[in-house]
Amino acid sequence: QVQLVESGGGLVQPGGSLRLSCAASGSIASFNVMRWYRQAPGKQREWIALIIRAGATDYAGSVKGRFTISRDVAKNTVYLQMNTLEPEDTAVYYCYGLLNYEDYWGQGTQVTVSS
Predict the structure, then answer these.
(1) Is residue 22 within 8 Å of 108, Cβ to Cβ?
(2) Are residues 69 and 51 in contact, defined by beta-carbon separation less than 8 angstroms?
(3) 50-62: per-residue pLDDT in tens?
């Protein structure tokens, strides 16, 4: 019914930047909250950023000041701008959306930070 599709992952050097996109099949304005998560090899899934319907944002301490979540309602897309990337940021990044008590997940996109 509802699909979230991440894109924009890839290989970047430490200190570099990358922008991830999460395209929704429905209007992102209808979602109660949208979040970005990541999961590194051997680690549990980690919440890193969220944006609520009203537009307020919040971040995990590990990415605060480096990552920015934003949205373009007209394009039905949520973004994650990642700056000053570190090797510890290497993970599969997932987009999540809550809509009318239903949760939706994207398929994930790989981000690798390495020199």
Answers:
(1) no
(2) yes
(3) 999 999 999 999 9
